UniProtKB/TrEMBL annotation:
Organism expressing this protein natively: Schaalia naturae
Keywords: Glycosidase, Hydrolase, Metal-binding
Location of the Glycoside hydrolase family 38 central domain: 522-600
InterPro entries: Ams1-like_N (IPR054723), Gal_mutarotase_sf_dom (IPR011013), GH38_C (IPR041147), Glyco_hydro/deAcase_b/a-brl (IPR011330), Glyco_hydro_38_C (IPR011682), Glyco_hydro_38_cen (IPR015341), Glyco_hydro_38_cen_sf (IPR037094), Glyco_hydro_38_N (IPR000602)
Any Pfam family the entry gives: Alpha-mann_mid
Keyword Zinc-finger: no
Record-linked SMART domains: Alpha-mann_mid (SM00872)
Cited CDD domains: GH38N_AMII_ER_cytosolic (cd10789)
Entry protein name: Alpha-mannosidase
Amino acid sequence: MNESHARLTVDRIDRLVHDRIVPAVNAHAIPVDVLRWDAPGEPVPFAEAVRADYRPSEPGEAWGAPWSTTWFRLETTVPATWRAEDGLVELAVDLGFTRANPGFQAEGTAWDADGRIIKGIQPRNAHVPVRAIAGQRVVVYVEAAGNPDLARSGAESFLPTGLGRRETAGSACQYRRGDFLLTQRDETVWSLLQDLRALRGLVDVLPADRPRRSRVLEAMDAMLALVDPHDVGSTAEAGRSALRPALASPAAASAHAVVATGHAHIDSAWLWPLRETRRKVARTYSNVLSLMEEYPDLVYACPAAQHLSWIESDYPELFARVRAAVQEGRFVLVGGMWVESDTNMPSGESLVRQFVEGKQYMREKFGVETHEVWLPDSFGFSAAFPQIARQAGCGWFLSQKLSWNDTNRMPHHSFLWEGIDGSRVYAHFPPVDTYNSDLSAADLDRAERQFTSPERANTSLVPFGYGDGGGGPTREMMEAARRTADLEGSPRVSVGTPAAFFTASEAADPRPPVWSGELYLELHRGVFTSQADTKRGNRRSEALLHEAELWAATACVRRGAPYPYDRLADLWRTVLLGQFHDILPGSAIGWVYDEFKQKYAQIERDTEEITASALGSLCGVGDTGAPSVMASANSTPFPAAGVPAGGVGAAVPPASRTVAVEDAAGWTLDNGEVRVHVGRDGAIDSLVHVALGREVVPDGEKAGVPQLFRDNPAKWDAWDLDPIAAGTGRPLLGADAVWLDGGSAEPTVRVERTFGDSALSQSISLVPGRAQVDVSCDVDWHESEHLLKIAYPVDIRSDHFASEIQFGHLNRPLHTNTSWDEARFEVCAHRWVYIDEPGFGVGIVNDSTYGHDVTKADSGRAAVIRQSLLRAPKYPDPDADQGRHRFRTRIVVGEGLEDVIAAGYEVNCPPRLVEAAGPVEPLVRPENELGCAVLDTVKLAQDRSGDVILRVYEALGGRARIRLHVSEEIARAALTDLLEREERALDVEGDSVVLGLRPLQVATVRLSWRR
């Protein structure tokens, strides 16, 4: 067939489908009687809504102010003339949405009259199945969510908008109600439509010179001759007969194989608040269960324990149906995490708890152990993650996000991903490059064209179903899967589980390639900085929970104090929810951050109460009548000022204090360890390690200088930092006031600056008795589309720098030899970055900053470390970061990495002053016999046995041997996985346990006491 004829056939098919076949699908349709009730505020349960006063509703009327809820009551009787022997009719519900962007506009939940959810209603899935025969009365309620209409507003282009926080009450309605109809589907016409969609898609993807394409077009030509546009219903079967030979032609023996898994990526919060996600989850799960009734072969992958927990709480009847589908093996739990978390910024213990809470919930509620990590949309992946996943019992990992890279393309789709300790997981990046596939010919063709495979493997996974805003698979997608199960010109599609895919792929791939280190996303680099308050809240909550668990466990073992298991679990789950990959990264709407500001404040109140109660029990004030003294409670893993790690005692003051001297150029601060000169412009122009006589600040440079950059990313406002921004920075050197504050505990240089509409104050002081400098920064930030950094040039020559990540560190290159190096121009670090030469190093420690860039100075003989403090994106929250912020930085000079690690803990968990009758010995006192092993976590076991759990890791990248001295008599010690299941017993030597660690290894130790 020549191309001119081909184009004519395609045009005729498209017109026939749009104008004749689609309208003929619903052979019978009648309007239904509709009443409405507008809920006055937040969503209400069905039981309340059904008792409300409803009023008549007509097509075309306005409804749906932003974030509002309107309930519609639909009532009709199935006409006696309808043939409904199978008892199945449908309601077609048009809430006034468009076909664009499912999940980003109005949605609905259909309920039967008894309060049972039937299914969700979305733009491309707007039918509601109803079991009713001719003459039977039908009553259905639709809970319609007036979510902001992003499909019409243009917000899907991610340009600056006013979406931000919750719109005020009384905002204009966004939607006009369409027709609500009772329909009866013509199955033959509908099947013809699915046949045509499958073959029409092949025409678009097959090359024009392929004989297969010509045969498909000839079959469609034959169909056109047989289907009467004026009587589609009567001629549809003849049309299907003409298409059957084309649909029966089998795929080539070498065709790519696709395992299609139903899925709905549901962002736990993004362009909607948490409360709307709870309803999105219910709509999606009910859609899936309804579809499973029609398609028993459907397999659906459900990744987040938090979503299941919401369903259990809000929709118990739906939860029972989900549990039944899980037991049948069709509703498949994957992921094993509490939420689909960011993996760059959460602490090591937070990532552990993502698995502990997620897997424990799935085991307890469903009896299921998950083995896959399912993170299709997170913004890059920490090099610490493979070890954590492995120790949590997960050997498989799935994502597709790196297909978004702006510079380099990942060379593998199935590979072994190796972490910092050498642990490996088998990873798969679906070459379809989406987690929202509709199983179209275009998607399947992309998966086959892009798949890169070593040796024998020729299979990829395709997650199909509408996502982000939820919705999930549809019957059209299931029909597409059936037609492409063995279809010439297409990959072979089988609907199956992720476990089936991974098992088969591993077996076919005996020597997969290895990718070592982080999986850095070359996009969305701004998420390490956006919404600074939330990042501070996360970091602070992690530290407070660390303290609360340590002291509560110690008080329980020592004093028999009750351990607040439930309270701590609830607090952890709130923190874990906040680490979802659109919350912690700062890419959600303002409503979400308003809510989390309150949540973090409550976490602080609760953890402070737990800690105060535990320390009060331990410190024994009033127990013996002995006089009390002020003491220091040290919750860090390192001794501090004479107080042991995990203990309480009197702090030993340093032998010398800071001396301040003023000269014509500024002020010198000297504590005997470091000597700092701060110029009249408020910048550090000299920083000398006294014992070594080593100057840190390069000639002509200044440290601690704020820098302001234009920040106008090309597309993703809150997400991206474009490389062009790096050339727009200007130092903020003009100080309004600089003075020496001698009245504070330590002499401190104060600096005040104003710029634009903002103000910035800095305080520079020395840490008594240490070669360390504290620089605090208070910012009243009112800029728009700008980025604030602070620069620390250091006179150190190196080709790499170290960044703290979970349970260790990652070395990254300072050079830009390759495009991969060049693209990594903004990176994530936890509490510190460190750069050194043999015998001398400098660490920059922070209390809440994640975004950093570290580059070579222009001379090539020095480096510049910059912290990214604040941004001011306009989308999706136009008020992002506006207001007051405080940042604390510590410069650690000349010390080794171990001292930088200790400073990181101290800055984030500073000593706590308490009233004590005497010293409190640590429950567990760590002693390094070789290397540096860090006792990061002390808590009681999840099973509430009273056993103590210790989390230890090797921090420097070498071998370590640590002796854990225990103050109570040990009955048993064992090494466990992260889920606290015993792997092997450990030898107990008197009052201690000795543990050897490989480089950057994490170990979990379980201690049982003699009681």
